[in-house]
Design brief:
Blueprint: H1 2-9, H2 21-54, H3 66-74, H4 78-102, H5 106-110, H6 115-118, H7 124-129, H8 134-151, H9 158-174, H10 187-213, H11 220-234, H12 238-250
């Protein structure tokens, strides 16, 4: 009794019977569904914020600005009002790149709010983090989709596009901002840097496909056995395929030294 009382004083929960595997899987499925619902809600919200801001919805309602409209109508702060715009800006740029890269608008046709088209499984935090570099994200997505389409390794289905978008957002979040033109007065060096960046981006996309065939848990030796035939079929040297796979795993360009770069 003394130990039980002490646990309650410290806020410890009473012991529970161990979960069965079936119950654990059921709870995990429910958690996954809830997370998906949150991400879909972010997509719907972003689409409606984009449309409302573009229409200057605050004017006919007698508000002086977007921030005063949000404060009066929804009770949110100026910072929250502009974070909504950041989310909308990021998703609009991403969707524009995807639509151009896949040459399809079927999702917009079936969904007037664009929610399905904008649902790439991205969190609000991630979208806010890349809002200032939404153009860089869109450009990276465009390059990678083009590289995948050119490689012919895999059809650009929804799962592939979603993976490309999520990886592009992760890469832009973790990468430092690109140097400004002022940092390199030599146009030849600047042009060479762009070529290297484009080559690295397309190689990363190919590496992601290699990972689908030879997952990251395989060693290089095991992956070579799996990828040899694939590389031969697409005309890619095996050492380049393995280097692209290592780059997709690590995100470190040094994985490409001596092969692709």
């Amino acid at each position: 009794m003394g130990e039980q009382h002490e646990d309650q004083e410290h806020g410890a929960e009473p012991a529970r019977p161990p979960l069965t595997e079936a119950r654990a899987r059921e709870m995990t499925a429910g958690l996954r569904e809830a997370m998906d619902d949150v991400r879909r809600s972010v997509a719907v919200l972003a689409a409606r914020v984009r449309d409302a801001h573009a229409a200057r919805v605050w004017v006919p309602l007698g508000h002086g600005s977007w921030e005063s409209y949000c404060a009066a109508e929804f009770g949110i702060s100026r910072a929250q009002a502009y974070r909504l715009l950041d989310v909308a800006r990021s998703l609009t740029a991403i969707h524009g790149a995807v639509t151009a890269g896949t040459e399809t608008s079927r999702t917009r046709d079936s969904d007037p709010h664009g929610a399905a088209a904008l649902d790439y499984g991205l969190s609000q935090r991630a979208l806010i983090a890349v809002s200032a570099r939404s153009g860089d994200v869109a450009e990276l997505i465009t390059r990678r989709l083009a590289a995948l389409a050119h490689s012919g390794l895999q059809a650009l289905d929804e799962a592939t596009v979603r993976a490309v978008v999520r990886q592009a957002v992760r890469d832009i979040r973790t990468a430092p901002p690109p140097p400004s033109d002022e940092t390199s007065a030599d146009p030849t060096i600047a042009a060479l840097r762009r070529v290297v960046d484009e080559l690295a981006a397309s190689t990363h996309a190919i590496g992601e496909l290699m990972l689908e065939v030879a997952p990251a848990y395989l060693s290089d030796t095991e992956a070579a056995d799996v990828l040899a035939l694939l590389c031969e079929e697409v005309g890619e040297p095996l050492d380049h395929g393995l280097a692209a796979r290592r780059y997709a795993i690590s995100g470190d360009r040094r994985a490409l030294h001596g092969t692709v770069l």
